[in-house]
Amino acid sequence: MIVKNEEAVLTRCLDSIQQVVDEINIVDTGSTDATKSIAAQYTSRIFDFPWIHHFAAARNFSFQQATKDYILWLDADDILTIDNQTKLQQLKSTLSTAVDAVSMDYHLDFDEQEKVIHSLRRNRLVKRQRQFQWIGAVHEYLAVDGTIINSDIAICHRPLSHDAARNIAIYERLLEAGEAFSPRDLYYYANELKDHAKYAEAVDYYEKFLATEQGWLEDCIHACFKLADCHHALQNEANAIRAVVRSLTFDSPRPEACCRLGFYFMEQHKNQQAIYWYKQALSITESTHAAFRNLTFTTWLPHLQLCVLYDRLQQYALAYEHHKQAKNFSPQHPQILHNEQYFQQLFSSDN
């Protein structure tokens, strides 16, 4: 782990992992709170690394401290549930030494019932002997190859706070130094600009990223969606929908693209066209090992919108069926609760 001022979350993280791993290595990059004293309750293997505004450098240093056959990496605001602790213990007892890396789910967002709605996969466990390297000053990634297996183990991301200015400051420091941005850097810098409401600049960098034609497929598709959001914020709806359609030039339609197209037609009261696209979103079956998964676009959201669309067409039985499906996935969503009352009144008046 690399840490800095993580006293609020570090105990939670280490409690969830200490009985599963054989060694804990913590690299501190300049904490001024109780982080190091908390870490000392779990391990004596605490190392200092002066912060040089480069995450990959810090992570590579942390990997150099490991002495066991495999390295598991975590962030301080990550945890393993008891179920996933058990799965990791089982993996340790059965893992073939021929395996170079193990990917795990990374659960990022949860709904009101603590169901996972947004996740991605990351290579979390790697063979130390292979000396895999982290790359990138910010939004760094671990470059792995060889024999990689997909596990059903999940790491839960549970942040309590976020330093919103940290990443964009690192990118701006690199720009000032004349650093050449990789396609990945262009994409993630555009994301930071968008998150800071610098929409016109974000559009410029998303276009630069896409113009390289060297980006990862999923990043290219999501760049189109983010471009659409920027154009919407800039009140350019024509360019926004063009950006969504552009995502279709990279691969088969993603559920999010279908939902965005459905909403475009829904706003124009082109109900049949909207129904078509929301049904398309529901028809797509995503692999459980997909790089990115946002279940919003394959569960309650298209059902909620189909409920509204069929209600517009006075096809109340169909509308109610989709309402029940939406409710099954997200029973506490305010709009779904509103629709529940609506249908109760509708059906009581029919009687």
From TrEMBL:
Record keywords: Glycosyltransferase, Transferase
GO molecular function, one term: glycosyltransferase activity
Residue ranges annotated for the Glycosyltransferase 2-like domain, each copy included: 1-128
Enzyme Commission number(s) from the entry: 2.4.-.-
Gene3D superfamilies to which the protein is assigned, alphabetical: Spore Coat Polysaccharide Biosynthesis Protein SpsA, Chain A (3.90.550.10), Tetratricopeptide repeat domain (1.25.40.10)
Transcription in keyword set: no
SMART domains cross-referenced by the UniProt entry: TPR
Taxonomy, superkingdom: Bacteria
Name assigned to this protein: Glycosyltransferase family 2 protein
Source organism: Lysinibacillus louembei
